[in-house]
Design goal:
single chain; alpha+beta; 4 domains; 11 strands; 11% strand; Globin-like; Beta-Lactamase
Length: 688
């Protein structure tokens, strides 16, 4: 943010550059000469500037150059105005900021100042009757005002650069903080924190980290038609634990479950995908995002973060929220497994107590069982225990379980076992034991107090399950997952290369350039992003869209390249390229591309081909690719028509909204167009 510049600072800067009142008078005196030769000055300046490849790349657009030339004329007019107050300084700093943003560096600016010195002094010398002394003074005045300007421009460069650094640092700090919060919540989940406590910590820490007023955990109830506000922060009193939201797609949470992907809302008041439930409207929510809390058999629910101000959430924000939801999902699943195990162990203990640890059952248990007295000396073991440990009964009876222990188990675990038995009468967790031959084995240990029929504690019973093989499998699965990820990236690269090869083959036959293929891809990706689709899906739609006309590879060139209108028979042949393209693209990897090739000539109102699909029956990827293709066709030169301007094409697309084109896709396209993204794609990939 620029500091406010006052008259005192301006006067000081004039002193630095020796810009005197005499100089100002001389500048005003030659102003008519400058104004009379503005076109000559500016053309000479830009002729010099466009000699260099670096500036040519930046100033390659003719319309941009023309605008800059007009701006230069205004600049030169004000340069000799004699009015150098705060308003003048503000405009100079604004120009410096613009130059920085478009990539015109300091070296260019200083070169430009030097060029103007020569141009202006030469102009005055040729068009005035000044004597040598006055001409020298005028030249010095021109240098002073140019150096005065340079001070402000360079300061603007510096402020813009440091601002970028500051923004980048803040972004890194935010990401690091988000990662730290995820790690902290993960530790809390691993520490066996009770679920209600963990959920409250999740919503509190998430709201603080994202700087939002509201955060919620919605639990999907057994009827799967209702979500309960299980935990939350910021909501009115009485809402948490009682408020519900339907799972229909007219609510953000329901839409999140339906779409199976993160949902981001910039402004709920203008949201088209859903209306939002009373829970959000009652609290004045405007922006927010929501992700699924996954479960083993079905989703547990939805994690959402919301604010009452309009806000654009970043990809890092979405990833953070999903990571927190994953931590919560892990804790919920772990709790479910533990409860099942505890119930099983409870049932086992009950049976054991009722049968007074029946010898037959004890001997036949498939898990290692060890009994100790209250002094923790082993009094009994079952055959499985002997088989696993390699000891004989004589070697174990009378010893403490420490004989089976390993130094690989941290010392604090043994302290926790003692504390758990004293306070709760039981403890469970993972330990590492050692067999008689010295080999370690991973064990899940559940140890509890057993009592006699009178309820008096008589000792401890430990159930030990060998999980060595399970842990090995987990490690193997982890390596396998990493290998699969590497393979997926390789296949994805080959997939994109194959698609591009197909597209270029069709492009050569249809006299379409490679730029057309690239523009279709970029337009489609941009529209998909504006629709709120995930980055992965948006990229897949973009890549697949370049195969929209792959079926034309079978269409006769005489039809494809015909400069005039097609006959009815030729139109029917041309229509056949949709089905031909779908037949070419088969297999799961090409499903999105197949949908685009088959349906990109379907119309929203049902008047298209080949199947006459209507509205939402048309796959979203086909709707997106159709719009991208229509816009590029309108703005591109063809044998039978000239290229339209962007404005003409956008007007035509608006007219096609709700008829040939999907309304939501058109609105997403217009948002991207207003941001300048569409125009930038055309500039980047245009050889016409």
């Amino acid at each position: 943010m620029r500091p406010e510049i006052g008259e005192k600072e301006i006067a000081l800067r004039k002193c630095y550059t020796e810009l005197t009142e005499e100089d100002v008078t001389l500048l005003r005196e030659v102003r008519p000469i400058v104004i009379a030769h503005l076109d000559e000055l500016v053309e000479a300046f830009y002729s010099h500037l466009l000699r260099f490849e670096e500036t040519k790349k930046i100033l390659k657009d003719e319309a941009t150059v023309n605008r800059l030339k007009e701006a230069q004329k205004h600049y030169l007019t004000s340069l000799f105005s004699g009015e150098y107050g705060p308003e003048y300084v503000e405009s100079r700093m604004r120009i410096g900021e613009i130059h920085y943003k478009i990539g015109l560096g300091i070296k260019w600016y200083l070169g430009a100042v030097h060029r103007y010195e020569w141009l202006l002094v030469g102009l005055i010398r040729r068009n005035s009757q000044m004597d040598t002394d006055k001409l020298l003074k005028t030249g010095r005045a021109i240098c002073s005002i140019l150096y005065f300007d340079t001070q402000w421009a360079l300061e603007a460069y510096e402020l813009a650069y440091t601002g970028e650094l500051r923004e980048g640092l803040e972004e890194l700090k935010t990401r690091a903080h988000q990662q730290a919060v995820v790690a902290e919540l993960g530790q809390r989940a691993l520490a066996d924190t009770e679920l209600p406590v963990l959920m409250n910590e999740v919503v509190t820490r998430t709201a603080e980290t994202l700087r939002v007023e509201y955060c919620k955990v919605l639990e999907l109830l057994p009827d799967t038609a209702t979500l309960l506000l299980r935990a939350g922060v910021g909501w009115k009193e009485g809402y948490v634990g009682h408020a519900t939201v339907g799972t229909e797609t007219n609510s953000q949470a329901g839409y999140t479950l339906f779409s199976s992907r993160p949902v981001v809302v910039e402004d709920l008041r203008t949201e088209k995908r859903f209306t939002g439930p009373p829970l959000l409207h009652d609290h004045g929510v405007i922006s927010g995002m929501s992700v699924i809390i996954h479960g083993k058999e079905r989703p547990f629910g939805v994690l959402g973060a919301h604010t009452t101000s309009r806000r654009t959430f970043t990809r890092d924000d979405i990833n953070f929220l999903q990571s927190v939801a994953n931590v919560l999902a892990m804790a919920i699943e772990r709790k479910r497994v533990e409860e099942g195990l505890q119930q099983s162990l409870k049932d086992l203990r009950r049976s054991t107590e009722e049968l007074q640890i029946d010898r037959q059952a004890f001997e036949n248990l498939n898990e290692c069982v060890l009994l100790t007295d209250l002094e923790r000396k082993i009094i009994r073991v079952n055959p499985i225990c002997l088989q696993i440990t390699g000891y004989t009964p004589e070697e174990l009876i009378g010893q403490t379980p420490k004989l089976l222990g390993s130094r690989e188990t941290p010392p604090y675990v043994f302290a926790e076992i003692g504390t758990g038995l004293v306070k709760k009468g039981r403890w469970s967790g993972e330990v590492v034991n050692r067999r008689k031959d010295g080999t370690p084995w991973n064990c899940y240990l559940d140890i509890s107090t057993f009592k006699d029929l009178d309820g008096i504690p008589r000792g401890y019973i430990g159930l030990m399950r060998d999980i060595t093989e399970e842990k090995r499998r987990v490690e193997l699965l982890g390596r396998h997952a990493r290998d699969m990820e590497t393979l997926h990236r390789r296949i994805q690269g080959q997939f994109e290369e194959t698609i591009y090869m197909f597209a270029m083959a069709c492009a050569e036959k249809d006299e379409v350039t490679g730029d057309h293929v690239r523009r279709i891809r970029e337009y489609s990706t941009t529209i998909a992003r504006e629709l709120g689709l995930t980055e992965e899906l948006a990229n897949e739609i973009g890549v697949s869209s370049i195969l929209h006309d792959v079926g034309k590879i079978n269409t006769p060139e005489s039809i494809l390249r015909k400069p005039g209108p097609l006959t009815p028979e030729e139109r029917e042949v041309m229509k056949g390229h949709s089905l031909a393209g779908a037949n070419i693209l088969f297999g799961e990897s090409f499903q999105v591309a197949k949908n685009i090739a088959l349906h990109h000539h379907e119309n929203w109102d049902g008047t298209g081909y080949p199947k006459g699909l209507k509205g939402a029956e048309i796959p979203i990827e086909a709707r997106i690719a159709k719009l991208a293709d229509v816009f590029d066709a309108l703005t591109s030169r063809r044998p039978y028509k000239p290229a339209w301007s962007e404005e003409q094409a956008v007007q035509e697309i608006r007219a096609m909204k709700g008829k040939e084109l999907c309304p939501m896709a058109v609105e997403a396209f217009e948002r991207a167009y207003q941001k300048g993204v569409i125009s930038e794609i055309r500039r980047k990939y245009s050889s016409q």
